[in-house]
Amino acid sequence: MMTSAVNHYFGSSIGRKHLVAITGLLLCGFLVSHLLGNLLLLVGPDAFNLYSYKLFALGGLLYVIEAGLALVFLVHMYLAVRLNIENMRSRGKYAMKKRTGRGTTLMSATMPYTGLVLLVFLILHLMNLKFGTVYTTVVDGTEMRDIYKTTMEYFANPVSVGWYVFAMFCAAFHTAHGFSSAFQSLGLNHGKYFGKIKIIGYLYAIVVGGGFAFVSVWAYMKGV
Amino acid sequence: MTLNLDSKIPSGPLTEKWAKHKFEMKRVNPANKRKFTVIVVGTGLAGGSAAATLAELGYNVLSFCIQDSPRRAHSIAAQGGINAAKNYPNDGDSVKNLFYDTIKGGDYRAREANVYRLAEVSNNIIDQMVAQGVPFAREYGGYLDNRSFGGAQVSRTFYARGQTGQQLLLGAYSGMMKMVAKGKIKQYNRREMMDLVTINGKARGIIVRNLLTGELERYAADAVLLCTGGYGNVFYLSTNAQVSNGSAAWRCYKRGAAFANPCFTQIHPTCIPVHGDYQSKLTLMSESLRNDGRVWVPKKEGDTRKPADIPDEDRDYYLERVYPSFGNLAPRDVSSRQAKFRCDEGKGVGSTKMAVYLDFRDAIKRDGRDTIAGKYGNLFEMYERITGDDPYKTPMMIYPAVHYTMGGLWVDYNLQSTIPGLHVLGEANFSDHGANRLGASALMQGLADGYFVIPYTLSNYLASTPLEKVTTEDNAFKDAEQAVMLQTSKILGINGKRTVSDFHKELGHIMWENVGMSRNEAGLKNAIDGIRKLREEFWHDVNVPGDTGNFNLELHKATRVADYLELGELMALDALERRESCGGHFREEFQTPDNEAKRDDENFTHAAVWEYTGQNSSPIRHQEELKFENVQLATRSYK
Amino acid sequence: MASTENMTLNLKIWRQKNATTEGKLVDYRVENVSPDMSFLEMIDVLNDQLVRKGEDPIAFDHDCREGICGMCSMAIDGKAHGGFKNTTTCQVHMRHYKNGDNIVVEPFRASAFPVIKDLTVDRSAMDKVMAAGGYVTANTGNAPDGNAMLIPKPIADEAMDAAACIGCGACVASCPNGSGMLFMSSKISQLALLPQGQPESPRRALNMVYTHDSLGFGNCSTHAECEATCPKGISIEHIARANREYMKAAFTYHEKKRSEGGA
C-alpha cells in the first residue's frame, strides 16, 4: 500500500474530498467570471454581444477551455455523487434522528439536493441559452450572434425567471457551505482565520447568487 | 503447606540493589523470546505497559480486557498527575526524597527496596511517556511543568490537564496497538478472567468468560501477569468504574496466591458527596484542587447560612488550623479523617450534612478567574454538570470516598506472587504504598511495574524455570473450567427474590460503616458476622435471570458480588487483627490524644499475608517483617 | 428547564436480542426519577424493575460514569450522548428533563458500529484505526530526557485538545455520513503537532486513512455535527490538519524496499 501512495490518494476519502474541493473552488471562480459577463447585460446589447463574440473568437482555445470546464463539472459531480452514495451506506439508520443544532446546517444538509438542482439547471441553461435560438446582429460593422436577444427573450418569461432565481438561490446555498468546506477539506482550516473564510464564503454566496438572480430579474423588468 | 514469603530483596546498599539485581538476573536471548507466551490480564497502566513492552522484546502476548477496548481501563480516570523525582523546579527533590516521602506517606508499612526502585525508575517513566507523544503540560519556554500534590513539599507532579491518567493510558494503549498490528499481541476484549490454572504448582493459564457469548475459554501460557487493579468496589460506592472488580485477584488467592494487607483502603478526601439511594458511583474531584482550594466547615453547628454569607471568623479552615505546615495539602488519609471528624461533630454541610466546603473564593480573588479556569476549568465544569452548582460562585461540597486499595496479592521484589509464574502488577499487588498511597503515585507505580520492572524479572523467571509444554487440553484446564461452570449454574439456579445490586448495596453499607474510615473491634466483628449472613442469604435468595448463552450482565455482576462477599470478610478480619492505626487503617482504639493514627511499630511492622485454606476453614495470617535500614521510623507529622 | 421534583418518564428503548435479529422500540415507564440521578442511574432503576419481574435487563455499555472512559454510547432522543455540550451519556443528569417527558433511547448507529444487543454496539473498528498508526514507535527504554525536546506551550496545549478524545464514537454516531474522521484525525493531529510524532507522521496519515476508509466509515462533508456532539469538544480543525498531513504524505512519502542484512 505504501508504494502506491499516490494511487491510493485518488481512491481515498480524503483524496476524493480534495478533488471535490478543488473542482468546487474552480467552479466558484467560473461563476464569478460568468457573473461579470452577465453584468454586461446591464451595459447594453452591444457590450454583451461583443463580449460573447470575443469569447468565440478564441476559436480552438475556447473549446479547450470549455472541455476543461466540462471536465471540472463532471469530476465534481461524479465524486460528489459517489461520496454521497458511500455516505448513505455508512450512516446509521436511527428510528428517530435529531441534530444538536450546533453542527449540521440547512446548507450542509441539503448539499446533494442543491447540487442536483444545479445539475438540472445547468442542462436546461445550456439548452435554453447557449444552444437556444440563434439571432444575428451587427456591432461596429461585424456580424455576430445576438445572444443578448436570446437572453432577454428567455428572461421575459416569468416561469424562466422564477426557475432561474430558485436555481441561483440553490447555488447560493450550495456555495455557502461548499466554499468554506472546500478550505476545510484542503486542510486550510486554522483557528486564526477560518472564521473569516466562513464569512467570505457567505459573502460570496450572497454576492454571486444574488448577482445572477438580480440580473435575471432586471432583464424581466426591462422586458424585451 | 508452608507459604514461601521470601521477598527476594537483593543484598547490598539500598541505592545499588536494583542495578545489582538487574545485572544478576538471567536473560532470555532475543531469538528465544518468541518461544514464550505470556498472558496479561488487564490493560490499565500496568497491564498495557507490560503487554506493549514484553511484545516489543519479542514475547508472544495474549492480552485480555473486560471492556470493549483496552483503552477504557480505569487508569484512564486518574486526573491529577504522576510523580517523578526529576527536580526540574529546583526545589530540592531527589530520588531519595521521593523514596522517603512515599515510605513516610505509607506510614512505614511498605518495603524499602521496592519503594526505592519505584522512585529510581520514576524519571524514566516521564521520559518514556513524553517519547510516546503524551502532551504533558508545558511552560512557555517549552519545558515540562510541575505542580505540587498532597503529602509532598516539593512540586514533582507532571500532569496533562485534569486527564493525566487518560493521557498516560492512551500512551500505553498506543504502544499496545502498535504491537497488535505487528501480531505480537493478541488482544481479547470483553473477556473476564474467571480462574487461574496452575500445573505442577506454576501458573500456566487462565479461564475467561467471553462476556458477549457467555462461553468459557481456555488460554495457556508460560506465565500469567495479573494487572486487574484494586477491589474498592467491595464498598459498592467508590470512585472506581462499574466493572472494576476484585474477582481475578480473589480467584488467584483461592488458587494459592497469598493476599497481603487487604484492609489497607484509601479513602480519598475530595469526592462529590452521596446524594441518593439510586447512586451508582462517586465521582472524584482531583486532589490537585487542594493546591488552591481551601477546605472549611462553619464553626457553629447547624449554621444554615449560605456559604458566601458566612464570614471568615465563623469559618473553620480546619486543615490549615490542625496542620499549619501542610495545610490543605495534608495527605489523603489524614484529610479524609478530618472531614469525617467535622461531620461527626455535626458541622457538616449540604442537605445530608455529610460534606465539607472546598472553596476557591480566595484563589479567584488572588489569581483571577482565568488563571483558576486554566488550571481546573474542566474539573469545575464536571462538578457543575453533576451537581448543578457553579464552583466559581459557590464553594464545592466534597466528602471522602473509597478510591484505591493499597492491599492486594502479595508479591516479592520480582513482582511474583506465592504461585510461581503468577506475577501481579499495579494496584492489584500490595507492594509499594504501605498503608496509604500518596497522590500521583498510582500512575507511577503501574507504569514502573509494567515498563521497567516486569520486563527484567519476567525474563529472569522464564530463563531460570523449567517449563514443560502444556496445552489447554490438560486436566487442570478442564477442572478449572468445570468449577466455573458449576458456580455459574448454581447462581442461575437459585431464582431467589433479591437482585444482585441489593446484595452489593447491603455489603457496601456494612463495609463503609465498619471497615471504612474508622474502625473498631466491635464494628469489625459485627461486619464479619453480617457479611457471613449476607453471603448465606446470597446463595439462597439471589435472582439472576437469563442463561449463560448470551450477554448476561446480571450474571457477570453476580459472580463479582459472590467474590466480594468473601473478600469483604477477609478485609474485616485483617482490620481486626491489625491492632494499631496506620495510614488509611484507623482503629479508634489506637489514636493519639489529638486523634492522629497511633502505630504500634513493635508488633506490627509487618505486612499481614493471608493464606487461603479452603471454603470452610479460616485463612491463616502470616507475616512478612518489614526491615527499615535507611529510614528512621517516626511518627508521621504534617503539622 | 431544570426539574426539582421527582418525575415520571415514558421511555422508548431499542431492544434487540443479538446482532442477527431485528430490533424494535419498546415502551417503558419509570416513576420516581430524581432530578439528581444520572441518565444511566435512571436506566439502572428501570433494569432493577425488569430483573425483579424476571425479565432480561437492558444491555448498555458504561463503565467509569465520569465521562472519561468512553464506554457509554447511547443516543438519547436521536442525539448521541443526548446532544448536550461537552457531555457524555453518563454525565447527563435527569434535571434536564421534566415530568411526563417522552424519551427515545437507541444505540449509537453507524454501519461501522453493528449492534451487539439492545444499546450495546461493536466499536472495534476504532481500535483497528488506532492499530494502523495511532502511536509513536518509541519502544520502552530508549527515550531521551523529557525536556530534551522543547515544545512551545500553545503547541502542547493544542496537542492536548486533540488528545482529549475518549474514543466513544459519538462523532461517528452523530455524523450524517457515519464518518470516523474526527476520531481518526484527533490522533493524527496530536502526533503531527508534537515533535515526537514527526518521524512517522506521513506513514501514520497514510495507513490510518487507508484503514479508516476500508472499515465502512463514511466521508467527511464538514457538517461539524461531530464537533458539536464530541463530549470533549474536539474541533474539526484537527480534521483539516489530518487532511493536510495526508496530502503531504500522499505526494511525498516514499519507502523503498531494502535488505537489512549485514555481517
Would you mind describing this structure in some detail?
The complex is a heterotrimer of chains A (224), B (639) and C (263). Chain A is mainly α and 224 residues long. Chain A has a single domain, classed as Fumarate reductase/succinate dehydrogenase, transmembrane subunit (3 helical TM bundles of succinate and fumarate reductases, Up-down Bundle). Chain A has helices at 5-11, 13-43, 45-57, 60-90, 106-109, 111-130, 147-156, 158-185, 194-222; strands spanning 136-139, 142-145. A two-stranded antiparallel ribbon of chain A has the order 1-2. In chain A, strand 1 and strand 2 form a beta hairpin. In chain A, helix 2 (13-43) packs parallel to helix 9, helix 7 (147-156) packs across helix 9 and helix 8 (158-185) runs antiparallel to helix 9. Chain A is globular, with a radius of gyration of 20 Å. The relative contact order of chain A is 0.13. With 639 residues, chain B is an alpha+beta fold. Among the domains of chain B are: 268-403, Flavocytochrome C3, Chain A, domain 1, CATH 3.90.700.10; 475-605, Methane Monooxygenase Hydroxylase, Chain G, domain 1 (Up-down Bundle), CATH 1.20.58. Chain B starts with 16 loop residues before the first helix and ends in a 14-residue tail after the last strand. Chain B contains 17 helices and 19 strands. Chain B has helices spanning 17-24, 30-33, 45-57, 95-105, 112-131, 164-181, 247-254, 318-322, 332-344, 361-367, 369-387, 442-464, 475-494, 500-514, 521-541, 553-577, 601-604; strands spanning 37-41, 60-64, 82-83, 157-158, 185-188, 191-199, 202-210, 216-220, 223-226, 259-260, 265-271, 294-298, 315-316, 356-359, 396-405, 408-409, 422-424, 606-611, 620-625. The model of chain B has no long low-confidence stretch (mean pLDDT 95). With 263 residues, chain C is an alpha+beta fold. Chain C has 2 domains: 7-117, Beta-grasp domain (Ubiquitin-like (UB roll), Roll), CATH 3.10.20; 123-252, Alpha-helical ferredoxin (Fumarate Reductase Iron-sulfur Protein, Chain B, domain 2), CATH 1.10.1060.10. The model of chain C has no long low-confidence stretch (mean pLDDT 95). The interface between B and C is large, with 82 and 78 residues.
